[in-house]
Amino acid sequence: MSCPLCTTDGGLVVARTLQFRVVRVVEGDEAQRFPAFYRLIWNAHVAEFSDLAAAERHACMDAVAEIEQVLRTQLRPSKVNLASLGNVVPHLHWHIIARFDTDSHYPAPVWAAAQREAALPALDLAALDAAVAQRLAVMTMRAGPCAEAAGAVASSGETNASCIR
Ligand SMILES: [Zn+2]
Question: Would you state the CATH architecture of domain 4-138?
C-alpha cells in the first residue's frame, strides 16, 4: 500500500527534525477555509500514538503544544483545535488548527458541513510559518542540537547532517 505521508511531505514544510516535520496545509478547500492549519507528521510510518516510545511521545506533544502557543500568541483565535484521527491516512499525524468564530464551520469540526460564508481576519501566513519554525528551533536547541529526543531543526527543510545518526 502506498502511503501519501511516506511518499510526500504532506504540505508546505515549515520545520523538520529527525523525528517529525511540521507542514501547513496549502492546497484545497481546507487551506481556503482554515488558513492557519498545521500538521505535525511523524517521519517514520507508525499508525498509532502508542507506537512511539515514551520520549518520542513527549517530544511529539511538546512540539504540538509549542505550535499551539504560537497560534494563540500570533492570532488570538477563538480556539485551537488538536486532532489525531488517521482513519483515511493511518500514518501518525496531529492536526493543529486555529479556529475563528467567523470561520465557515465554527463551532463544528473542520470536517463537518459548512455552516456559513467565512469572514476570516487577514493573516500573515509567512510570518506565522516563520514564528512556528523559530519556536521549534528554540525547543530543539533546549533539548540539545543532537538530542535523540528532538532531532535537528532546519528552517530550509534540510536536516543538520552532523546530527544524523
Ligand atoms: Zn506512511
Answer: 2-Layer Sandwich (3.30)
